[in-house]
Amino acid sequence: MELIPMEYYLVVSSIMFFAGIYGFITRKNLIAVLISVELVLTSTDINFAVFNRFLFPGHLEGMFFTLFSIGISAAETAVAIAIIINIYRNIKNVEVRNLKKLKD
Amino acid sequence: MEYTLFILILPLIGFLSLGLLGTRLKGKTAGYVGTALLAATAILAYITAWQYFSTPGVDGIRPTLIPLNWEWMRFTEHLHIDLGILLDPISVMMLVVISTVSLMVHIYSLGYMEGEKGFQRYYAFLGLFTFSMCGLVVATNIFQMYIFWELVGVSSYLLIGFYYTKPEAVAASKKAFIVTRFADMFFLIGILLLSYFTKTFDFGLLCSGEENLFASAAGKTFMGGAVLSWAMALIFIGAAGKSAMFPLHIWLPDAMEGPTPVSALIHAATMVVAGVYLVARLFPVYYFFTPEVLHGIAYVAAFTALYAAIVACVQTDIKRVLAFSTISQIGFMLVALGVSGMGTVEANGLESHEGLGYMASMFHLFTHAMFKALLFMGAGAIIHTVHSNEMSRMGGLRKQMPITHITFLVACLAIAGIPPFSGFFSKDEILTATFMFKPWLGVTMTFIAALTAFYMFRLYYNIFWGKPAQHDHPLHEAPSSMTSPLVFLALVTVVAGFIPFGKFVSSTGAAYIIHLDWKVALTSVIIALVSIFIAWKLYCKGSSKVPDKVAGFFGPLYTAAKHRFYIDEVYQFITHKIIFRCISQPLAWFDRHVIDGILNGIAWITCRGSLAFRWMQTGQLQSYALLLLCGCLLLLCIGLFR
Amino acid sequence: MDFSGFLMMRDEISLVALILILLLYDLFAPAKARKVFQPLACLLFVVQIVITLLPVSSLEAFGGMYQTTPAASLAKTLMSAGTLLVFLFSKKWIEEKHEIAQGEFYFLTLCTLLGMYFMVSAGHFLMFFIGIELASIPLSCLVSFSKKDGLSAEAGAKFILNAAFASGISLFGISLLYGGTGTLYFSDMPVALQGTPLQIAGMILFATGLFFKMSLIPYHSWTADVYQGAPTQVSAYLSVVSKTAAAVALFTIFIKVFGGMAASWRPVLYIIIILSITIANLFAIKQKNIKRFLAYSSISQAGYIVLGVVAASPQGLTGILYYMMVYMFANLAAFGVASLVERQCGNAEIASYNGLYKTNPWLSVLMMFAMFSLAGIPPFAGFFSKFFIFASAVQQGYYILVLIALLNTIISLFYYLLIVKAMFINPNESPLPRFRSDSYSRIAMVLCFFGIVLSGIVSFFYNKTNDMATESMEMCGLSRPKAVEETLDANPVPGQTLNTQGSTAMNATASWPSVLE
Amino acid sequence: MNLLSIFVVIPVLMLAGLFLSRTRQQARVISATGASLLLVAAVVLGVLFAAERHAGNTAEMLFTASAQWFPAWNIGYSVGVDGISVLMILLSAIIVFTGIFTSWNIDPLPKEYFMWFCLLSTGVFGFFISLDLFTMFMFYEVALIPMYLLIGVWGSGKKEYAAMKLTLMLMAGSALLMLGILGIYFGSGATSMNIMEIAQSSIPMALQKFFFPLTFIGFGVLGALFPFHTWSPDGHASAPTAVSMLHAGVLMKLGGYGCFRVAMFLMPEAANELAWIFLILTGISVVYGAFSACVQKDLKYINAYSSVSHCGLVLFALLMMNTTAMTGAIMQMLSHGLMTALFFALIGMIYGRTHTRDIREMGGLMKIMPFLGVAYVIAGLASLGLPGLSGFVAEMNVFVGSFQHSDTFHRVLTLIAVTSIVITAVYILRVIGKILYGPVQNQAHLKLTDAVWFERLPVVVLIIAIASIGLYPGWIAEWIHQALAPIVESLTVAAL
User: Fold this and answer.
1) I need a labelling partner for C451 at 20 to 30 A (CA). Which of A97, C246, C368, D423 fits?
2) Closest listed residue to residue A68, CA positions, set A58, A79, A59, A76
3) What is the pLDDT of residue B418?
4) What pLDDT, on a 0 to 100 scale, did the predictor assign at position C158?
5) Tens digits of per-residue pLDDT, B173-201?
6) Are A97 and B620 within 8 A, CB to CB?
7) In this predicted model, what pLDDT tens digit does every residue of C71-104 receive, in sequence order?
8) Which positions in chain D touch B148 (Cβ < 8 Å)?
9) For residue B301, which of B267, B326, B270, B333 has the smallest C-alpha distance?
10) At A57, which CATH number?
11) Looking at the 3D structure of chain A, how many domains does it have?
């Protein structure tokens, strides 16, 4: 069967990566920011998988790395959301612009 | 002759004992202790002189003895400061002069300073001075001389400032010290130069006339002048400072703020002639290697003598008159040295005629010390009674204080050069020497001699004749403790002229037979008599209007002279306006504002620096991420395209 | 199946055991037994520290996933010790504020500690990644530990999100490295590295995670905010323990894995050092809040530490470990005093230290010692650590870098003196009233006190560290990679003659075969 | 235990004792005994040293001892003394002794004050006895840092600014120094940080050119090298009396000592090459300091600037690099140390009575407090170089020695330096005339008292020391010549 060449995957993952970064920097809402971080992490997972599959099909390091990283990012998200909820408890919204008490 | 050491030690003991536990002693006791010690010193000095001059030297040439010489501090293998005692005609003669005058002053002060506060301090300082002055004259090397030179300066500073609560006294002492110190700086530089080339401080070597000693300096010039000439000239500047040569003389008149006996001792008889002594000491070097400097000295001295004599004619403060006469007389001595040649020993073991000036100047130094001390003490006695230095407060004192009157008259005659008083002989020799050197200089000096006679008798008549001033307290003769030294010195002044001085002191050390040059002698005596006559005419009655007329006639010159030709003002200007205003204060300002300013500026910039980076800490969550990202990219670039 | 690997991991095992014990104890112990929870925790923890102290030789386990070296185990000991001190300082605070959550606090802290253990002795990027995440996720919980406090929550959010972002980038870097080399084992990677742009990019992106943890400029922005917002004890923990882990990991990975590409990471670190030290110092001058102040000071200290990495020699590793030990004592002392004062006067303003010496001489003396030690003033330990880390850099010929660092020490001295000035000189009619701190904090403070005073003058500490470091460098067969040497000879630092000479000087001294051949 | 370590141990013991002391009296007694012990120990050391030398022991360093400390860098605690260090130790002992008595009534916090004072002296003594670069440097910094609190807490005037400025400037100097020391160590390729061993091996010129200025300036800052001298006026003016004494008297000597012991001795080639720059700088500071002193109003400022001038002379003479001049430099260190200490002590006592240091507000004090007045005059005469007091000996050695230099440039500089003796006279006499002589300015001063025993003691001790150096410099010169021989030799060899 005809394989999609590696570059295509990489393009996708890169787009995701930079989209994530862009989102992280521009979003106004903490949740949105969190989502963009997730994008970044996921894009790297794709990278690992792709590299493993195309360049070093011999073993499965990349794949395992992907699995672990997915798990970890899930944990990260959970904690982040918990904290965001806590923030919501304190200041009744999750707008980034309201998180400026600590500066200089 | 090791015992000569005690000539130094005894006064030093006096200084230390009186200085440390003086306050425990009663004033009088301190005085007696000091005087006793000084008497011992004087006796030792006489013994030394007798022993030295009685021993005949090898084929008639007086030897140079060095009984003691310790190495005190070693600089390099050649250069080391030794402390020692050098006995040769002039040093022995100086020892005699110093100890005598000092003893007289000690005795005199017992009366003069009676009841003064700080009697002990006074005698302690006198001891210190005598010690350092003796140390100066017996110096075996130029650096030892410099050491005692400084000590002398300090003791003079202390004594001038004896009445330290009097602002004028303080100012005067400061002035005296700083001016002489300024001169000493040149002296030191001169020493450095000389020693750099000759590799020695030792007088013996320097005066030996060794050509090769100065070989390394040969041909070396600095700003046109030969290095050696520079060195000797600088050394002379030092001498000029102490001996109050123009234009470094300004401290001497002010120094009269000190107690009068001190003026007699330091600023008339001994310290001020240190310069003359230094030149005499280095005479061979001057004569053989830098004759041009020697002649320069003569001209400077002649000018100073003239200047001082003119100024002396118009001063009204008797001590200042005497001060300026001192300056002028020292001028005479230095002229004599300057014009002198080096005598040569002739077949008959006597010295040839060229050495006349040298001998004459030493002779005059000797006689002048005596009669000038006498004059000052007399003035002191008068001031003691009248409580004032101003001529106007005096007049007709001859009745109240006969002894003072007579002795003072003797001294005046001596300084005026009237035979048979000592001044006549010595001054006559000087004039002869100058005529031998350059007739016109001789004429000038004769004229100055005439001026001398004039102002001295102006002084004399104003004090003892003229119409008496009113006094609310009875005037009386000074106590015997003060008059006895006067009498003694008067006697010395009378007889000193007949000492065959040349037999003892001469440029080579061989005996020199003094024979009067009748032309010179007669002219000088006549001129002196004439000027005395003028003085008599003008001031004897005290009612004559002529002086004012004369003053009016000389208008500007008179006022100028009265203000000592504004030399002090010039100094004031230089020191305060230039040194302080234009150097010190700007420097201080520079230090406070520029250098500190730079430092504070650096500190300030550092503190402000943090504001330059505040944008990093907006508190905005994402701006942090952005910063992180940018940093990351920057580093990427560095890593990739390093 | 071979369990010897586990035996090698006794540090980690003991720690896990401790964690589990405490967790279960916290869950099931009866209410009054929970009173002694904290003493018990500290006691057990001491035991764990003793276990880490046992000598280890450097070994690999699980096919190189895990490796331990004397240096690594020393680092672990240090981290544990630091954590213990933090616990001692926070005892009172927990009891007062979070009586109910004391178990969580210990559990979370120890979890992060475990993560750091893994960071230090990882042999594989996956291992390392797990470690760093394990170290940072619970930390974010700790940062936002005091739930009622808005600032704490804000700090937490800033921390977790930035951390996630950084780890994302770092992960991306790892993926690039994987793509470039095809392996993730530390031991296999060097052979596959030729310094292609891809690999360099991977390396630098990967390093982001570490730099972020060490809070080096420009990865530092979160630091001050988080330190200020987080509970003081947590800030202390952040400033000391996680920095140690990151620093040691940085050294190990950069030498072991990227040693061949030193030519490309050296200038990067060069820039980072200069930026961190200078800018952090400039920031610190202006601070009014003691915690922010300490945050910036810790950033600049981190900058000094990286000097050891640049030196890339056993002395460098020694320098890092020793510096960390000294820095731990001083910084924890400072934070401890800060936390006590904060609890008394309710704010963390530097102004509230004015005239402290009058009322609380001991606290102020300890604070002063800490400040002097941080500023590197003899006879306090800080002087020695600074001297040695500078020496290791000069030995490799980094004169200009060291000069800049040294000039920065003057700025740092200035702001440390400001604190001393506040306590001793500034007049204050109403200084903080005299108070007695609880016994646990006092124990901790005494420990710090002696640490500050003795760990420098008593050369045992340094020499022991040095032995361990050299030993571990030997055992891992890490000699200075060729590339480093070439670049060094290439770049015209004044007198690379010195390099050879310096090394000869070192030959004669260190038992370690010359760095330069 | 090694004889020299006593000088570090005693102050440390004093520290411990003070730490335990409860009352002001105890603190006083402890520090007084400690200081006296130090003085005795110093004298004993001097005697033993003389004996050793007399016995024909010509080793460069005597009483050496060495212990490994940080083998990784070959750092050892190695001590030893030559003539110069012995003299310096004597100087420090004298000044610490007098300083303790001068601060007899220090307020507030006497205990802390004396503790810092002890720490300071620990550093000073440690510096002078140690031969190991690292140890030396460590003690150097130990001596610097207490100044901050000593000035900041017990000082007067704008003390905080002064303290901060002083500390930062000196520390900046020592920062340069640290790099310099590291450079020397690695550059020489020596297998030890011991100065004597490093001196055996030579440092490549390229490195010397880089490290000599660092080291020289590093020490020079403490030696009041123009233009890094401005910490001195403010610092000395604000410091409490005894601290100014110790700082101007001893600490500034650390600078000069380090300059020749480390910078010039270990890097002779660069020293010869770069000497002219520093000669000009020091030449400036000699004259500059003197001139600036002329217009100051504050007694302490006057003395501080004169210190700048005198210490400038020290470095100046050192850079002339011949035995005589360097001997002069060492003597100048001693004499300046003693007389500036005396000055500061007297100023402190006068200030303690009149509560002003402004010379325009004083006058005629000689009448009121003759002892202090006379002492002040003596100090003044010493500092304007009166024969028979220490100043003269030092200056003459400096001038004659420098003028023996074969190069005209150096001789001209010497002449410039010579002018300072006049300027010195100017400002010294100005002060004496203003505050001691003349009529009493302020009637309130009339009921002031003269010095009491614990004030007279230090003054007398210092005056005796000054006079003994001035009257018989021979023995000192002997020791110094011996100690300088290797240094001068290496310098001359390098010059060829």
Assistant:
1) C246
2) A76
3) 84
4) 92
5) 988 898 899 999 999 999 998 888 888 88
6) yes
7) 999 999 999 999 999 999 998 888 888 778 888 8
8) 387
9) B333
10) 1.10.287.3510
11) 1
Q: If we measure between CA atoms, which residue out of C147, C228, B622, C107 comes closest to residue A83? A: C147
Q: Indicate whether A103 belongs to any domain.
A: no
Contact in structure between D240 and D150 (CB atoms under 8 Å)? yes
SS3 B55: coil
- B181/D422 Cβ within 8 A: yes
Task: Report the neighbours of B using a cutoff of 3 or more CB pairs below 8 angstroms.
Answer: A, C, D
Tokens of C206: 């990967």
- At residue B443, the 3 state secondary structure works out as helix
Number of CB atoms found within 10 A of residue B498's CB: 10
Is B269 a residue whose pLDDT tops 50? yes
**What does the H/E/C string look like for C380-420?**
CHHHHHHHHHHHHHHHCCCHHHHHHHHHHHHHHHHHHHHHH
Percent of all residues in chain B with a pLDDT value above 70, rounded to a whole number: 98
Looking at residue D90, its amino acid is L
Helix, strand, coil abundance in chain A, percent, nearest 5:
75, 0, 20
Taking only the tens place, the pLDDT of each residue in C306-342 is 999 998 888 899 999 999 999 999 999 999 999 999 8
Which band of pLDDT confidence, cut at 50, 70 and 90, is reported for residue C427? confident
Is C385's pLDDT higher than 50?
yes
User: Is this prediction's ipTM beyond 0.90?
Assistant: no
Q: Which of C160, C170, C184, C296 should we substitute to test contact with A (largest number of A Cβ atoms within 10 Å)?
A: C160
> Which DSSP string corresponds to C120-160?
HTB-BHHHHHHHHHHHHHHHHHHHT-STT-HHHHHHHHHHH
User: Could you write out the DSSP letters of every residue in B243-302?
Assistant: TT-TTSTTHHHHGGGS-HHHHHIIIIISGGGHHHHHHHHTHHHHHHH-HHHHHHHHHHHH
Q: Is residue A1 part of a domain?
A: no
Closest-CA residue of chain D to B169: D438
DSSP letter at C60? E
From A37, A51, A65, residue closest to C164, measured CB to CB: A37
Q: What is the rounded distance in angstroms from the CA atom of residue B337 to the CA atom of residue B277?
A: 10
> What's the pTM value of the predicted model, to 2 decimals?
0.90
Q: What Rg do the C-alpha atoms of chain D give, in angstroms? A: 21
Chain A neighbors of C167, CB-CB under 8 A:
41, 76
Alpha helices by DSSP H, C222-313: 222-229, 232-237, 243-256, 262-286, 290-311
Query: Which pLDDT band holds residue C501 (cuts at 50, 70, 90)?
Result: very low
d(CA A97, nearest CA chain B) in Å: 7
Determine, for residues D179 and C390 on separate chains, whether the beta-carbon distance falls below 8 Å. Answer: yes
Per residue in D143-154, pLDDT (tens digit) is: 988 999 999 989
Contacts of C387 in chain D (CB under 8 A): 134, 178
Beta-carbon contacts of B393 under 8 Å, excluding residues fewer than 6 positions away, are B386, B469, B471
Residue-by-residue DSSP string for C406-473: HHHHHHHHHHHHHHHHHHHTS--SSPPPP-PPPHHHHHHHHHHHHHHHHHHHSTHHHHHHHHHHHHHH
- CB-based contact C307:C402 (threshold 8 Å): yes
Place of tokens 């020290």: D314
**Between chains, do D430 and B147 touch, taking CB under 8 Å as contact?**
no
Domain span at residue A30 reads 6-98
Identify whether A104 is part of a domain: no
